[in-house]
Design brief:
homodimer, alpha/beta, 5-stranded antiparallel β-sheet, 5-stranded parallel β-sheet, 16 strands, 27% helix
Chain lengths: 361, 361
C-alpha cells in the first residue's frame, strides 16, 4: 500500500508500469534490444536499465576459506571480523545482524557501510567498537514522491512469526493552514504488548525523510509508541504541527495498545469487510457520495449520538472516516454504548490505498 | 554565534537591526508613532510590533490561592495538578521541569501545551500519565534562514555550573555533489564524561528542522554523542549524506570525549587566540589569502608532515581549516609527533561567526 503513490506518479508521468511480470530474455535486433516478457509480450528498447537487486561479490572471501551466509554475505562478528579473526570485511558484501529482529541481515546501504569501516579500523587498532546491526533505514524519490522506511517490514515480522500491530495516519507535513502543506502517509509497526516500535514506512513529499529519521532514532533507542506521544519536535507552521505527524502516529498506536481505540488494518477490510460486520461511514453525506466502502451506511459523526438506534447491537461494528480521526470519535461513542466496534486505521484513505495495492498486485 | 546568519539575512533585506538598545517610550505625533530609544534616537513608525516575551496570566490562579513560581508560572506537578490537587493547569501559564537540567522551567510552546492537556485529562479520569518536562525544542524562520534548538543552551548550563563541551560542524543538508546543497551550522552541547547530549542548536536552510528533531529524540532517550555516531538515517543524495550531519556531529564530539581530537571552541579564540599559542592555518594558500586568524601561519595539511620543523615543540599549537576536517587531520598528525595541539572546532567558519557575534554584541 505504501508503494501505491509511487505507482500513481509513474502512471501520471506516462510510464507504463508492468507488475507481476518479468523479463525472461533479451534479444538484439539491429540497433534495438527486444525484451521478452514472461507473458510473451516483446518490448523494443534503446536502453535497458536492469535493477534486480545485488548479490555480494564474495569470490575472494570464499577462496580464502571464509564463512559466507546463505545469501552469500561474508559472515562477520560485531567487530567486523570474518571467520578468520585477522581478516575484516565491511560494506555491501557482509552479512550483519538486523537491529530490530536480531536475525542475520544483508542490507547494502552506504550509511552502515561507512560505520562498519570505522568500527573495523577501531578494532584493528585495539578498540572494542561494536557494530549494533543494521536497521535498514532507506529512502527513495520517484519524481516528486518520496518513500522511506526504517526497521522491520510486515513481511519480515510475519516470516519470523513476531506479533505486531500496525496503524496508519495521513497527516500534512506542516500545519495544514500554512500554504503548501503536503500530505503524507505514515505507517507504524509496533509490539502490541509493550508498544516497542518495530518499524515505520512513509510516503508523500516534503517531510517524509524527517519523520522516518525521527522514528529511526526512536528504534535505535528502543523506544515505544508512548515515547512518540511525548516526542518534543520543532514546531512552527512551516515545519510541522503542534501535534507532529510522529506524535499523531504515537497517539493512534498508544490508543490501540491501551485498548482505548480498537482498530482494524485496511488489509482486513479489502476486498471485503469482515463477514457479519456492520460498516458505518461517519463522514459527511457529500464525502460518502464521492466514494465509500461497499455496504457501508452513512451516519455522520456529529449525528451519531442521536442515531444510535440505526447501529445494531448484535454484530461487530466497523467505522471509518477519511483519515481516522472522526472514526476514532465514533469508536469512542460506540464503545461507551457497549458496542463491539473497531475503526479502520487510516480511514477511507488507507482503504483506497489498500484497494489499489491489491488491484496492482 | 548561531544568530549571526539571522542578523546577516536581515541586513541583506535592507532591515536596520539595532542591538544593545531598547525602546524606552512611544509618543504619538499625528498619524505616526515616535519610538524613543535608550540612545536618545527617535524613530518614526506607522506600525509598531512589540515582541518582548511573555508572562503568565496568573491572576485567577493567584486569587484562588495557588502557588506560583518566581517567574509567575503556576506551579504544577507531573500530573499537571496545581498546589490544590483538584485544580489542574496546563499550557504557557505553568511552570514545568526542564527535561535536561531538572530545574523549574517556563517554556511557552504549543507542543508541550498540547501534551500537558492530554496528561491533565488522563489524570482527571484516573490515569497516571506523567509529563516528562519540557526540552524547549523550537524553530524560527527569518526569510530563508532557519534557526532551531533543542535542550539546554550554554547560558543555562553555565548558570547551573554544569560541565559541558561544545563542538561545531558545518555540513551540507544533503550530499554536496547533488544540486542545491545548502550549508548549515550545527552546534552540539554534551557532557564530556559520559557524552550525554545536553542540547543542540542549528542554523541554515533546508534540513535544519530535521537534524534538530533527530537530536531532540536522542535527548528524550538519554542518548550520547556515541549514539549519534551510530544513528542510521535516511540517505539518498537529495536527503542527506551517508555520513549525515547528525553522524558528523557525533563523530566530532565523540572524538573529543575519547581524547582523539582535542578541540578549542571558537569563543576561546576570539577576539584573541590564547596567549603563547602558535596558530597554524592548514588550508590552501588561496584560502589563507582570502582571510585568516590573526597571527596564523599557513601550512597546508598536505605539506604538514614535511614541514614539521616549522611547528614549535615548546608551545601549545592551535590548528584550523575551513570547517574542521583538515584541522582534525592536522591535529592527529601533530598529536602523533607529541605536540600539544587543539583544533578550532568548526574551523575558520566558526571563527568568523564568533567574530561577527562579538562585533554585534
Amino acid at each position: 500500500e505504501i508503494a501505491v503513490p509511487i505507482a500513481e506518479v509513474l502512471k501520471q508521468k506516462g510510464i507504463r508500469l508492468l507488475l507481476g511480470q518479468s523479463v525472461t530474455a533479451f534479444e538484439r535486433t539491429g540497433d534495438a534490444t527486444q525484451c521478452i516478457l514472461s507473458t510473451g509480450e516483446r518490448l523494443s528498447a534503446e536502453i535497458v536499465l536492469v535493477g534486480v537487486g545485488v548479490r555480494p561479490e564474495n569470490q575472494l572471501a570464499k577462496s580464502a576459506g571464509l564463512a559466507v551466509g546463505p545469501r552469500g554475505g561474508i559472515v562477520v562478528n560485531e567487530h567486523m571480523q570474518t571467520s578468520d579473526p585477522d581478516i575484516y570485511a565491511v560494506g555491501d558484501a557482509v552479512q550483519t545482524i538486523d537491529f530490530v529482529t536480531g536475525e542475520p541481515a544483508q542490507v547494502p546501504l552506504a550509511g552502515p557501510a561507512n560505520r562498519q569501516g570505522r568500527i573495523a579500523a577501531d578494532h584493528i587498532f585495539g578498540r572494542l567498537s561494536r557494530y549494533r546491526g543494521t536497521q535498514g533505514t532507506a529512502i527513495v524519490r520517484v519524481f516528486d514522491v518520496v518513500a522511506a522506511l526504517t526497521g522491520a517490514s510486515e513481511k519480515t515480522l510475519r516470516r519470523l512469526h513476531r506479533e505486531y500491530r500496525k496503524i496508519y495516519v495521513h497527516p500534512t507535513h506542516h500545519a495544514s493552514y500554512y500554504p503548501g502543506a503536503e500530505k503524507m502517509t505514515l505507517k507504524l509497526l509496533f509490539d502490541p504488548g509493550d508498544g516497542k516500535i518495530l518499524g515505520a514506512q512513509a510516503v508523500g513529499g516534503t517531510g517524509v525523510d524527517k519523520r522516518i529519521d525521527v522514528i529511526a532514532m526512536a528504534i535505535q533507542a528502543g523506544m515505544t509508541v508512548h515515547d512518540l506521544e511525548e516526542a518534543e519536535l520543532c514546531y512552527a507552521p512551516p515545519f510541522g504541527s503542534a501535534k507532529d505527524a510522529v506524535n499523531m502516529a504515537g497517539f493512534v498506536a498508544a490508543n490501540l495498545c491501551r485498548g482505548d481505540h480498537p482498530q482494524t488494518p485496511p488489509d482486513e477490510c479489502v476486498p471485503k469487510t469482515p463477514a457479519e460486520s456492520f460498516v458505518v461511514d461517519v463522514r459527511t453525506p457529500k464525502e460518502f457520495a464521492a466514494g465509500h466502502v461497499p455496504g457501508a451506511v452513512n451516519i455522520p459523526v456529529d449525528e451519531l449520538r442521536g442515531r444510535l438506534a440505526e447501529v445494531p447491537s448484535d454484530r461487530p461494528i466497523l467505522v471509518y472516516c477519511q483519515v481516522g480521526q472522526r472514526g476514532y470519535l465514533a469508536t469512542r461513542i460506540l464503545l461507551q454504548e457497549g458496542r463491539q466496534v473497531k475503526n479502520i486505521s487510516g480511514g477511507f484513505t488507507s482503504f483506497q490505498m489498500e484497494s489499489t495495492a491489491q488491484h496492482l498486485a
